[in-house]
Amino acid sequence: MTSNILKIGKKVVNALENNKPVIALESTIISHGMPYPQNLKVAKKLENIADSMGVVPATVCLMNGKIKIGVNEEELKILAQSSNVVKVSSRDLGKVLAEGKVGATTVAATMIAARLAGIKVFATGGIGGVHRSVNDSYDISTDLIEFSRNPVIVVSAGAKAILDLSKTLEFLETYGVPVYSFKTDIFPAFYSSTSDLSVEQINSVEAIAAIYKKNLELGLKQGMLIANPIPRKDEITIEKMNKIIKIALDDAKQKGIKGKKLTPFLLAKIVELSDGDSLKTNIKLVENNVKLACKIAKVL
After folding, report:
1. 3-state SS, one letter per residue, for the chain
2. 287 has catalytic annotation
3. Which domains does the chain have, with CATH numbers?
């Protein structure tokens, strides 16, 4: 039974039992997305933002053969400092649990954990998707598949800008995943608030909650993607980012970097090429997503 695998923190249990708002937070952003000590500061700040809005944060990870939903400060430090944290997608869950290793959950694994715990809303930075080299590599993130079978609302700044955003949206449409952009009809490009892609606009958290409830009534298993553009004052223009991303992609290709190692390599290279600006932008967009996720959770 899943209850033997889940270890849910007391605050999260209390909130779920008393119908109080909870949001899930992933842990790859801590272990694989940012350097120490920046990652620990960000993890704490995201939880503090939720707390300040009257919402219980539930950071998800794997430890001691359990899926932990809601971690303490010591566990956050382990995720932030340890060099042995495994990056865990859905296919890795059973293995990492069986081996009792420490694992940081991706969007895919966090969606599964949220569903198992009964958490309806999850805030992240940007989801994975279809890679630009898909015609050669067939590299498509498991995140997209898990959207089709976990009824969780995911708030993100679109998909990671290193991806083929157009193909990512097509893939989600094929699998029947609702995608809405918050207060705009433009699909954001992670570091940038704009792109040349449009999706359906949604203007209120009440509307998001209403659609989600109707999908559940229909017995649909899909999640929902709410694309939340980074505020203009915090963005890096798409023109500047495209130049940086091209250099990073060319470098990865030259070095033969593929699979699980590709995204962390590209994100680190982009931080280097942008003189750290991309990391600052990444932090701002995640904070913005947590705030919107909290508002949705409160309405639900």
Report:
1. CHHHCEEECHHHHHHHHCCCCEEEECCHHHHCCCCCCHHHHHHHHHHHHHHHCCCEEEEEEEECCEEEECCCHHHHHHHHHCCCCEEECHHHHHHHHHHCCCEEECHHHHHHHHHHHCCCEEECCCECCEECCHHHHCCECHHHHHHCCCCCEEEECEECCCECHHHHHHHHHHCCCCEEEECCCECCECCECCCCCECEEECCHHHHHHHHHHHHHCCCCCCEEEECCCCHHHCCCHHHHHHHHHHHHHHHHHHCCCHHHHHHHHHHHHHHHCCCHHHHHHHHHHHHHHHHHHHHHHHC
2. no
3. 2-299 (3.40.1790.10)
